[in-house]
User: Which sequence fits this backbone?
């Protein structure tokens, strides 16, 4: 499963050479896809493919080159301008990914559309100067990678719910020192020997529920009832380790992500059985964003940051 942020790079055919420079520069750190690299689907319109595949990307970079020569009606002045469809596609991706994750690099001899006046864009005039623009984009992406935004698909919201309704439930129950809060087993919080492992299979096409059962059996885990701070939940526990050492290893496979997978299928209008590359990439994006959001939430909690580990494991052990 890819762990690098994925970037879509768009331009007109006339400015494709600049798009390729951007791809080579940013491709050293990120997974880059240029529009000209077999991106568009057969038997589908350009707009349809762009809209359908937007959910597989984390960021978008559009190149506004000297594509057309335009005459201004009011005063008859002439100037170069980016192709009109580049503006349309940039707006599409800014709407889906958010303006903070969509970047417009414009040739400095171009007239900028009035809708973008006041918006800071990166200016270039040749292949060397566009690399300086790439540095700006890279810095912006590095800052943005430390954030998680509410997006079209629900992984950010699901991670927030999982953090509140599962991890914090365990934390609050332990800190409240409830006796026998796991199927009759007592736990002494003073020993600080609780470990919570959030485990995710590295294949979005396996059935996560049956995989969790197989993972538990393979690792000698037992499913027990856990009395959380407000409700009772089922968790996986390493009973043998607890009996032998007193270390309480709690494991969970976040089934809530199955809602993300269902959302992807709905957004893509999936009406067939089988695997689809766009659906797979979108679901992998959801898993990656879920983990990133969860890590950001956990690191702000002094207690959970010491005891929670998130790991991706081989789905086909």
Assistant:
């Amino acid at each position: 499963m890819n762990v690098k942020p994925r970037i879509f790079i768009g331009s007109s055919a006339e400015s494709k050479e600049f798009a390729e420079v951007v791809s080579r520069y940013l491709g050293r750190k990120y997974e880059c896809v240029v529009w000209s690299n077999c991106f568009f689907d057969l038997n589908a319109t350009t707009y349809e493919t762009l809209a359908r595949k937007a959910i597989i990307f984390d960021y978008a970079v559009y190149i506004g080159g000297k594509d057309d020569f335009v005459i201004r009606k009011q005063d008859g002045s002439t100037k170069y301008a980016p192709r009109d469809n580049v503006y349309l596609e940039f707006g599409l991706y800014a709407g889906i990914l958010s303006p903070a994750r969509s970047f417009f690099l414009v040739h400095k001899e171009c007239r900028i559309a009035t809708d973008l006046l006041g918006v800071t864009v990166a200016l270039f005039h040749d292949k060397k100067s566009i690399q300086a623009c790439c540095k700006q984009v890279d810095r912006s992406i590095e800052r943005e990678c430390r954030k998680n935004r509410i997006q079209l698909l629900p992984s950010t919201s699901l991670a927030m719910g999982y953090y509140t309704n599962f991890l914090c439930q365990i934390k609050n129950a332990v800190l409240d020192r409830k006796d026998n809060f796991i199927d009759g087993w007592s736990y002494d919080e003073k020993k600080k020997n609780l470990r919570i492992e959030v485990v995710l299979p590295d294949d979005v096409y396996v059935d996560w529920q049956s995989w969790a059962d197989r993972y538990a059996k393979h690792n000698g885990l037992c499913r027990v009832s856990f009395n959380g701070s407000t409700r009772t939940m089922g968790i996986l526990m390493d009973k043998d380790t607890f009996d032998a050492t007193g270390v309480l290893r709690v494991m969970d496979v976040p089934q809530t992500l199955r809602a993300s997978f269902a959302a992807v299928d709905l957004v893509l209008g999936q009406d067939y059985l089988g695997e689809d590359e766009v659906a797979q990439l979108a679901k992998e994006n959801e898993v990656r964003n879920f983990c990133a959001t969860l890590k950001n939430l956990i690191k702000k909690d002094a207690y959970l940051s010491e005891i929670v580990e998130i790991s991706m494991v081989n789905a086909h052990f």
Summary: The chain has two domains: 6-143, 155-313. DSSP finds ten helices and twelve strands in the chain. The chain has a mean pLDDT of 89.
